Input
Amino acid sequence: MVNLTPYLLFSGNCAEAMSFYQSCFGGELSLMKVADSPAKYQMPKEMHGRIIHARLESETIDISASDWLRSDRIPKQGNTVCLYVSGGSYQQLKTHFDKLSVGASVVDALNEQFFGTYGALTDKYGVRWMFQGDSKHS
Output
């Protein structure tokens, strides 16, 4: 089976960001530093503390990430990548939305729309999230 998993690139704070997401959603978090991987022999020592791969996995969440490791390229924060949290009750979405809202820029507050519950925010790490679920009154 082929799965689509969002992959996030961070500027040295991957472990912090992924731990925050785990505190919001639960699940099992695995983190591997460059120093603990075979890549350490190809990377400068100053990169050894960075995360080469992280994965947060549960029945409902599957996110992979790493720190930016390409010294020959410059990362650009964009708004074309978004993590989409869909389904579930209003209360389930509200719980996640409220936790992710800490330090975030709320683009659209979690509210009732004609198609159900909707909200959007950019979290404190610059990652955009959209929420869509059942009507508040269903």
